[in-house]
Write a structure and sequence with these properties.
Structural class: alpha+beta
Number of strands: 6
Strand content: 5-15%
Helix content: 25-40%
């Protein structure tokens, strides 16, 4: 099972996402920073039918947040949260980064290889020539 931070502004303190190997599904647990950690997540997404790919998580999360952030911004916040876990080869488990890159490239209009290169090399949070703030700037 993988567990990465979801570094989305206002939700970055406790929110997580990843791959649940026993259930063979992606999952996302969104907690607003004001939510007590002992409480259930404000949004909990999982299930093979609903969460086949990270793009599905991002789209459902954006809908839950009433489109105040785009699915692309959520995918980038997911990628930033996984950055420290990519390992020496940059891929993480179950192809986490390639799956994110596929989803981002679908929304961004770039190739997955270009997105992977930008995600792996870019510390300034630029993807496709645009700046995406996620998490706190502390």
């Amino acid at each position: 099972m993988s567990r990465y931070g979801l570094l989305l502004k206002g939700c970055e303190e406790q929110s997580v996402w990843g791959w649940d190997e026993p259930l063979s599904t992606w999952y996302l647990q969104l907690y607003f920073n004001s939510t007590d950690h002992d409480d259930e997540p404000d949004l909990w997404l999982y299930g093979r039918d609903k969460c086949m790919y990270p793009l599905h998580l991002a789209e459902a999360c954006a809908e839950y947040l009433k489109d105040t952030v785009s699915p692309l911004e959520i995918l980038l916040a997911m990628a930033e949260g996984a950055r420290g876990f990519w390992g020496d080869d940059g891929w993480g488990d179950v192809g986490t980064i390639p799956r994110l890159a596929e989803a981002i490239s679908y929304l961004e209009g770039s190739t997955a290889a270009e997105i992977i290169e930008q995600l792996e090399s870019n510390e300034k949070r630029f993807v496709g020539g645009r700046y995406y703030p996620f998490g706190s700037d502390d």
